[in-house]
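Running this now, will post back.
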Amino acid sequence: MEQPEITNPTLWRLLVLIDRTSLRAVALSTVDDVQTVSFNVPFDPTAASMLAAVEEAVYAVPMLTADFATVDVLVDTLDYVVAPGELGDEAAEAAATYCCIADEGDTLFIDRVDTAGVSVVWPCDTELAHFLARTFRNPRVNCRVTPLLRYLGAKNAGGNAAKLYAHLTAGQGAVVDLIAFGRDGHLMLCTTKAVPATADAAYWIAAAMREAGMNGATDNVYLCGDPSARMALAPELSRFAANVLPFIFPSAALRGGHDVIKAPFPLILIPLCE
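Update: finished.
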């Protein structure tokens, strides 16, 4: 692949997403509102492990290990638990243990989401976590769903309708993140489901609406993420919800230039949560 170049990394911040099939990264200048470098490194499907695949992808782009001003890494996983923040870390870890989301060799991470009043507890392979810590400059490592919760939690103080946000990815390993807020602005539900087909996404959205106690005639469903997945899904949802709306792209995210809209949505949201 063509190697991206950055003259002075200390004037840039790096955002990295490790999903199940690739490493995706965005570098944003801290001094120029329109400078953005982004790229995608697919994992070798024959790699012996996820750790080996990530190592190979990182070393394929030497720029990634440069001395950036800040580094944020998101790790994609379907296995996470959202616990009320007031319960504390010990109770959150106990909930994760009860749900058996971590395997032997995993380390549990706890992401605090003050804007939604919750903590996200999620497992990361311990060797992968060690690799990230020693390879990147003081990385802040979070679950992929955490920036979505932080941003949406800050935007939902209440209103006339409950809201369900469906964040869609496409391609191999496609998923839908489902985050629902009640009319009072409180988080009602957060989960991620695999969606190999459009019908699967429609099913899980309808199920999430029922679980959150939403009214299909009066409450709102907002679609964000992959454009093609959104266009295919919207007609399907008309059977379950009267108000299916596109999520308005945050104008503040465009400080990196319009090319930033091609980056994974959770990465785009990280700077907006600070």
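The chain has a mean pLDDT of 92. More later if anyone needs it.
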